[in-house]
Amino acid sequence: MAGYRIRNSILIFLLTAVLAVLPVPLARAVADAYTAQHVTLTWTDKVTVTQTITWKTESSWPVGKIMYAEKADSNVFAAKATVVTAVSRPLPADGSGLVVHVAALTGLKPDTTYMYRLGDGDSWSRSYWFTTAPADTAAFRFLVFGDSQSDGYENWGRLVRQAYRDNPQAAFLTVVGDLVDVGADYSQWREWFDAAEAVISNVTIMPLTGNHETYTPVWGERTMPVLFTAQFKLPANGPDGLQGLVYSFDYGDAHFVILDSQEREEARFIPDMLARQQAWLDADLAATAKRWKIVLLHKTPYPVKSGRSNESVKAAFVPLFDKHRVDVVISGHDHVYARTYPLTGDKITAGGTIYVTAGRSGAKAYQYVTPNELHEFFHNPFEEPNYLVVEVGQDKLSVKTVSQSGQQIDSWQRPQERTQEKIAS
């Protein structure tokens, strides 16, 4: 027994000595399992055959690789797995000391669940999962969250986890801007990702920016949302200078368009950002043959907060929503849940676009908000946050709004009965 203890002590001494002289990344690989932070699923290409995965590590893990295989092969994972090397860059945040790794997986099978692990080629993380979209789907569900900005992200974390537990079949989720309160402050992003990672490492998130993504810790100072684009890899099919902020993608028989409404905050950097989006939006909507057209942008063209007006956003986009018969426009910014009648311009028309303000998923709420004559339904989620469950079917689009405690706030449907003829421009 004494000899065993001596030999064991010698082995521990030798291992400690070896680790002491190894370069830090290699020493970490020998000593620890690969530690991946803030694992996030997005799409940058077709939802049926690709998946983009982003994660972070400490700078002592500068290399990122992903090993993946079909779930059916999980018992022989190492033998069946494909390994892809990520694009790895330092996170552009003072003092973070983190590396962002991005891997785009291609050539996947539709409607297939994959198992994946993250690592550096020698050491690997625990297993995660994702499922590709079906090649043909008559119906699907996705989740929409209003602004999650807070002075702490416990509310956001509880809501997104509860929503996913209640809707495990959701194809993806989105947050309609103002994910954090100060977009250039990485400490807020760290809290946001810590709260959401259990969900967004297994189901795709396709978010958009709000005005707070441009805020810096210096009062009144603005920047482009560089931490947003560094941490969320999204389709690069938008207009010049706005790739990753303005984009579109298809899921099933729906075409989704994401716009950037932050012209006040970003005009210093891209003065013609609304004009660039107008030309792109017109062409993008004209090119789709999908049955449903759904647009998401942060600032609603029809605000309900006193003193708030988004006339430049409204002038830029609403005529194109009318021209191309957009079914639903979903926004945030006002931290209330509100739904207009179907509108063409400012007129209530049976075949018009419905504008929805999504409520809130964080702690911030407004006490003084009021609907106007264009709103068919209005609810201020002052007591607790909420989220939207959107069901896209072949013949109808259904939306249910649910509070964190599970109470239904609103429920409505849009039948697919409108003519496909476009309003003359």
**Helix percent band:** 10-25%
Structural class: alpha+beta
How far is it from the N-terminal to the C-terminal residue, by CA?
90 Å
Q: Count the strands?
A: 23
- CATH architecture grouping of the largest domain: 4-Layer Sandwich
What's the name of the CATH homologous superfamily of the largest domain? Metallo-dependent phosphatases
Q: What share of the residues does DSSP label as strand, in percent?
A: 25-35%
- Briefly, what CATH class of the largest domain? Alpha Beta
Main beta sheet: 7 strands, mixed
Cα-atom radius of gyration? 23 Å
- Let me know the average pLDDT: 90
Described by the principal axes of the CA atoms, the overall outline is globular
Uncertain residue segments: 1-31, 419-425
How many domains comprise the coordinates?
A: 2
Number of contiguous helices: 9
- CATH fold title of the largest domain: Purple Acid Phosphatase, chain A, domain 2
Q: Strand order within the widest sheet?
A: 12-13-14-15-19-16-20
Write the layout of secondary structure elements.
Elements (H helix, E strand, L loop, with lengths): L1 H20 L2 H8 L5 E6 L8 E8 L6 E6 L6 H4 L1 E4 L1 E4 L7 E8 L7 E7 L8 E4 L8 E6 L8 H13 L5 E4 L10 H15 L3 E2 L20 H6 L15 E5 L2 E5 L4 H4 L6 H15 L4 E8 L11 H13 L4 E5 L4 E4 L2 E2 L2 E2 L5 E5 L16 E5 L6 E7 L3 E8 L4 E8 L10
Parallel strand pairs: 9-10, 10-11, 13-14, 14-15, 15-19
Antiparallel strand pairs: 1-2, 2-6, 3-4, 3-7, 5-6, 7-8, 9-21, 12-13, 16-19, 16-20, 17-18, 21-22, 22-23
